[in-house]
Description:
This protein is α/β, with parallel strands linked by helices. It has 23 helices and 6 strands. Pfam families: MFS_1.
Amino acid sequence: MGTLALTTVGLGLNLRAWILLGPHLHERFDVGLRDYVLLMTLPLLVAALARLPVGVLTDRYGARVTFPVVSLAGAAAVFGLGLAESLPAVVAFGSAAGLAGAALVVGGALLSRTVPYGRRGLALGVFSLGTVVAVVTSAASRGLGADGRRGALLLGVSLVAFAGLAALVLRDPVAVRRVRPPMRACVEMIRLTAATSLSVLYALALGGIVAIAVYLPVYLATAFRMEWFHALTVTGAMVGLGAAARLLGGWWTDRRPTPQLLTLCYTVAAGLCLVAATDPQRLTVVVIGAIAVCDGVAGGALLALIGKAARPDSVGAVMGATGAAAALGALVPPLLIAGTEWMSRSHATAWILLAAMLLLGALYVRTHGLRIGLGLAVRFEPEPGPTAMTVAVVREAETHLGAAAVVARLAELAANDELVVVYGADDPARLRPSANVLVVGLRERLPRHSIVGVGVPPHTGGLGPLAAPLGESVEAGEVAVAVTPTADLSGVAAELSSYLHADRVLRVSYTPAGGAGLHEVWHRAPAATNHG
């Protein structure tokens, strides 16, 4: 069984454990609908708290260790859930099963390290189909008994079997260097999520799916008097539809810019929420299904963006941090719906509030598109080595699709080398240093560095008086970006490298298949040694 197939099945089994509390609450103890919503948020909370440390440990020890451990922890909770006799014990074990929700981080980190850049978004989309596995497993276990006891025990056995298989089969190229202690890495990732909007956007997409999974059965049972089993069946179909849509989002991210897609998804979802608010009794299931598709596409695109942007040695921590923040944020929609329905006795208010949240997300993406891809500014620790004076040459065409990836590679260069970037552009807006994509991006990515943008006028025949200020910027430890028309790019780069006595000149490229690459154009030959 291939790595992708195995991790997808493992995710499905663990997600099934994650949501196993619901049937026990309703079938065995007849918990009220409002209490049901509140109790179902407990496994989500546990998963949110577990994702960051599990992601950090995945970077340290590899998925071959952490995937079996997470699955065994989920199996233990599931066994306890199946054997428990009292409501408090069921709630305790069902909440502990939320640990299995960290499987998304482990599998996602493994695929991000092993799948090539150009296919990574699609692979993470296929991996997200583990949710469909969970839905199918849930439906199949219904025949084992309505109270869920036998289904829980069988699921526990399946998780133990998967843990053994994963330990034998999985291979994870974990980085050899383990510089940061786990606690320090967790603190760094918390700071990262607090400084980026990516987690909020991911929570907005994930929140719609979580709201459907948690609250839709209650909504269908109260608003439409639907039988509980039928409500769960419809909910499973909607969640599965959202998971399948993640495949489209991941595929798109491999080929096209993400911000436009996110803007469209959030805007359409907001409009559908308003439709549901104005006429909640007509076509509700169709509208909710369309919302699930929009949220699924957006969630798949963002998960792919995280997997493509994070460094291999820290992708587990990044996915854990963003996943934890998103899971905590995803608790808001179901609680918002339940709270507004209880206070106003109307579902319309909740739909309107959700529409407002989605419209704000769409507006943010439209005005801050670049920052979405630059939100993962994980500190880079270069290998020990001599510092070089580097001139990096970038053409405007390389930043049309891969601005975030190009900026990330330049930021890594700046962490070790004295760096000057020469950017060739023909767009008048990009020729202004204050609005240039690399200047703005590097300032976002390197908040502790001073980034200086210098506009080189066209047809001047060289740098002229601008050479001295650029040299002074390098001496002061600043990262200088010389913005020039494309026709003058080669001449400006050659003159600048000569003036600065550069050690090498690099060309930065971007392709959807390989991401951002560095190509050496010229390097200074070592000085000849006089032996006498």
